[in-house]
Amino acid sequence: MNHYNIAKEEMAFYGGDCTSLQNLLAIIIGPKATSEVTGKLASLGIRELATLSKEDLLKFDGVGELTATRITTAFELGKQLLSYKNKDVEIIRSPEDAAKLFEDLSIHNQEHFVAIYLNTKNHVLKKKTITIGSLNASIVHPREVYSEAIKIGAASVVVAHNHPSGDTYPSREDIDVTRRLSEAGKIMGIDLLDHIVIGQGNFTSLKEKGYC
Fold first, then answer.
1. Which fold has domain 90-205?
2. DSSP string of 17-36?
3. pLDDT averaged over consecutive 10-residue blocks of the chain (212 residues)?
4. Residue 154 contacts residue 118 (beta carbons within 8 Å)
5. Separation between Cα atoms, residue 123 and residue 116, nearest integer Å
């Protein structure tokens, strides 16, 4: 029995939640899947694998055009599903509401800093990625966050970034950035409602911690 058939049997018996990443990849690739190829890809971990482009995948021995296309398409479908699930969150009433809109940050293995802009009734107007990279006050400057708010007439802002480690405990840099944005927002009359740190299935609200 080839790798593909073994993987299908595992999924049929145990369900998708209990099927290994290597065997899920074998099912996506199809009957030509080999344990060598799926093993190499699975060793990267799902978060890193999700960030790879088709060109990146083609650099692996044994990965052809069709295989690379199938894998990137599968991850794109997952991203779109996550986005679709959160479209019903149009008003932010709590940190939980805000965190749902930033769930997609959990897939990244590099820090992404993102802002959501709201009107006076806390309806979502726009979501924008501000910067990608390690978070510090020199990279996340208030003008980068609030210039967009002024442009679209937003009344308030919620920002978030991910911790690739999965630990959402706020760092000193997280706190410094939050206080700087909060102070700038007060001067400009645009409230910083919260700063959410996203982990793996969990989050921390810096508003609830008293930092904004």
1. Cytidine Deaminase; domain 2 (3.40.140)
2. GGS-HHHHHHHHH-TT--HH
3. 82 82 90 89 87 90 90 85 59 92 89 95 93 72 93 96 94 94 95 96 95 88
4. yes
5. 10
The amino acid at residue 2 is: N
193 neighbors 118 (Cβ within 8 angstroms): yes
Question: 0.70 exceeded by the pTM?
Answer: no
Assigned fold of 3-84? DNA polymerase; domain 1 (1.10.150)
- How high is the pLDDT of residue 121? 92
Parts of the chain belonging to CATH 1.10.150: 3-84
Query: By the 8 A CB rule, do 38 and 22 touch?
Result: yes
Tokens 């990608």 correspond to what residue? Answer: 132
pLDDT at 87: 53
3-10 — which CB contacts under 8 Å span 24+ positions?
Answer: 3/33, 3/34, 3/35, 3/38, 4/29, 4/30, 4/31, 4/32, 4/33, 5/31, 7/33
Strands (E), the chain: 112-118, 124-132, 156-162, 191-198, 203-205
| CATH 3.40.140.10 residue spans of the chain | 90-205
DSSP 3-state of 40: helix
What's the confidence (pLDDT) of residue 109? 84
CB of 177 within 8 A of CB of 140?
A: yes
